[in-house]
Amino acid sequence: MGLLSLGTPMEWKDAQPLASHVRKHGIQQFLSLWNKIKDRRGDILLWGDEIEYIVVSFDEETQNAKLSLRQEEILKVLSASDQETRESAPGLAGQIPTFHPEFGRFMLESTPGSPYGASPKELRGVERNMRLRRQIARSHLKPNELPITLTSYPRLGVTDAPFTEPHYEPRGNASRSMFLPDELINPHARFPTLAANIRKRRGSKVAINMPIFKDVNTPSPFIDPSIPWDRDFFPEDAEAKAGAAKPDHIYMDAMGFGMGCCCLQVTFQACSVQEARTVYDQLIPIGPLLLALTAASPAYRGYLSDVDCRWNVISAAVDDRTPQERGEPALDLPGHTPRGGLDRDAEKIPKSRYDSVDSYISQDPLNRRSYNDNPLPINAEVKQQLLEAGVDDLLSDHLAHLFIRDPLVIFSEMVDQDDETSTDHFENLQSTNWQTMRFKPPPPGGRIGWRVEFRSMEVQITDFENAAFSVFIVLLTRAILSFGLNFYMPLTKVDENMGRAHRRDAVNGEKFWFRKEVFRTRNRHASRQASRQVSRSGSAEDLQGGARSVNGIENGNGHGSDNGRASPQSIASSSSDGVAGSPADEYADFSMDELMNGKGDDFPGLVGLVHNYLDSLNIDVETRCEMGLYLDLVSQRASGQLMTTATWIRQYVRNHPEYKGDSVVSQKINYDMIKQLDRIERGEVDAPGFLPRGYAARRQSQETQPDLRAQA
């Protein structure tokens, strides 16, 4: 999670006067890097995933599934094991997965040892690599511990029973939370300082309010009896009663509630900065759709909520804006002022620093100015500096918008840096703007190119699901670039989609804005005809057999100086505009089924476009079938044939014999549910309506001891 530097972190009162210094030198560092790598071309498509796990400790005697706070110990053991493998089998060094610390001491993050390529045959190894990482992590845990890819732990912050192992009282000075102890936070100096400085800059604790799910016996209005309303350990304890906690909502008061959520992220390397900007823009409208399709977090602090996704929880959990910046009155409490923890007045900022994207950045002629219709506060001084250095207006706006924020953690040893060789000040701000997409320059002096990070997805319970959604996004980017697809629409509509994606059962109950015509003008008719002719016969009915018919045409796509597509210049010149008329005529409401699986002759569907791309390649039947299994999962999730993880969790809780119809996720329900999810992941039980038919048998056939040699 972000930049993990070594040193002495500064408290907010000492860091605030240095904010301008960090911004000034951060943009100088970017410009120094930009001048060296802006013309870099020829990087091949590489990509990787990041998967986050929660480590659960089962107490069989009390039937309690608690969070294990052994992250440091587990990572040390994993590191020692990795080193032993490197020494005994140096040829496998590139295959060794990497495990990283995360904000919560109950979390692990894993990445593949080496990036993947984009050829379909290489994509077949993604699920195997994810499974290997899970097996390695599991093999280094205690017998009663489990690494589970669960987006949010349903009982984080409950007050009726211990929820961590070991147990600590919530009396830490960093968060000052009434629910979460500081011992839950990764002890690296960056993390507790981040939590404390968000609170201090804001001028209060963060206030996260998720609507309660109103079941038959849920009190109305719901006033949470588990909040210690009269606690007086910290001055901030009075905030809940003063209005921070809303009726009919689940109240949370610390960064850990958001940054304790797990996600699935995918990062792509592009061949050039132009291609990276194109991919960045075209994936922006996809973010809310994949958030809804991967929805996996309906429960918080021991209650069922009326939302299915984590995004707004994290957004509120790191919202360091003052009341003045939020456009809200300060709480009516001593020491609470509109300025919060700032020593100056500040302009209104519409969003948290963890939110959706606010501007498109590609210079493609299809990027009409009217699509950037969100309010975009910028740092005018930074923008002027960028423009004078020759950076174009769109990219200057993007960076100047990121640089309206203050740095939250400054290390005293790193205040003065060489702007020609370091990018730490730039990354300080870049890495603490958490948006649905991230545009990432190459690190200085390395072999890594321009990258784009897709960040909206919730992590799924099984490696099969995580591989399916990762592979789908990779193949969609290939289709975007190969066919010159156009997904542009106003960003205000993308934001509307983000709101809709959070709603309960959004996949089946909501419609989403999307562009009606996704093909560029010149090739529109041909592209439509091609997408209609995608072969859907022989679709894999289950995970054990049934290859798709393949009519591949070799085109060498996927490698080389342009990753197998026309240059941005030639694509731009193939159409005078690519759009016509008012932007309001270009988009419409679609169901998720229509968006993914198509709407007759009117819309091909994103899954259909990916099938079209695959059919243009010369790939073997076995690989085509494997890709088909992944696309079938996306397709069936979108059509409602398969439910989301959030829906499965909600149904499990409500059907549990101990559930009282009151929205409460009890200790016993949580224990049984996590045990059942583990059995499902292992393939020990079937999960009809949740996973495809045949998943359990397929998963059982793959159960082996972790072996790096099998990955080579």
Automatic annotation (TrEMBL):
Pfam families: GCS (PF03074). InterPro entries: GCS (IPR004308), Gln_synth/guanido_kin_cat_dom (IPR014746). The keyword Nucleotide-binding applies. It catalyses: L-cysteine + L-glutamate + ATP = gamma-L-glutamyl-L-cysteine + ADP + phosphate + H(+). It comes from the Eukaryota. GO terms for molecular function: ATP binding; glutamate-cysteine ligase activity. It is an enzyme of class 6 (ligase). Its EC number is 6.3.2.2. Residues 321-348, 524-584, 691-712 are annotated as: Disordered. GO terms for biological process: glutathione biosynthetic process. One of its GO terms (cellular component) is glutamate-cysteine ligase complex. Residues 528-540, 567-576 have a biased composition (Low complexity). Pathway: Sulfur metabolism; glutathione biosynthesis; glutathione from L-cysteine and L-glutamate: step 1/2. Keywords: ATP-binding, Glutathione biosynthesis, Ligase, Nucleotide-binding. Transmembrane segments: none annotated. Belongs to the glutamate--cysteine ligase type 3 family. This is Glutamate--cysteine ligase. It comes from Sporisorium graminicola. The lineage of its organism: Eukaryota, Fungi, Dikarya, Basidiomycota, Ustilaginomycotina.
